[in-house]
Specification:
single chain; 58% helix; mainly alpha
Length: 219
Amino acid sequence: MLDEREVEEVYRRLSRAMPGRTLGAKGPKGQPDAFRSCISCMLSAQSLDRNTAAATKALFALAKTPEAMLALSDEQVAQAIRPCGLYNMKARNIRRFCEVLLAEHGGVVPDSREGLLALPGIGRKCADIVMSFTFGKDVIAVDTHVHRVCSRIGLTQAKVADRTAQQLEERSPRWAMRDGHFWLIQFGKQVCKARSPRCEVCPVSDLCEYYAALGEENA
């Protein structure tokens, strides 16, 4: 992995090259509150964005609060979220999530990682996304783009996203935590793409372990 000085330099360059957090940044998939952000994040697992959008639109047309959600039958929830796949399992998770949220938190979504992870159906990625987007916490949430970019450059060395998130929290400078997710995800979409990374225009190619390996192969 890159050393501490190199990690800081990567963030400095990305901060200059990428726009960072926008004023309109809010809950995942554009949801307006923490409850619907959590549900939307749960539905997005192994689902394309367009399918998740269709599922959330259909579900929130029926219910927008944990109380209203529990008034629906499992079959109603499953049918509404059918486009996003794994709908029976996700419907059960939504019911358990709502039950625990009401019983232990009075229906209010906790704003800490510990509190979020204690809720059924919420993993590290979802917790960090809700903390960052909905609650404005200084957290680098790790999605597919962020995981790929960090592994390629050498910011982290992990096979799974949860471990990438842990290493980023340990290795990232405090000043980069607020916008780090945004710089990395924008970089992953615009430059460090999955199939054809644009190394020729990359602002950190001279620090990147992937690019260095390419040079050795072509030498």
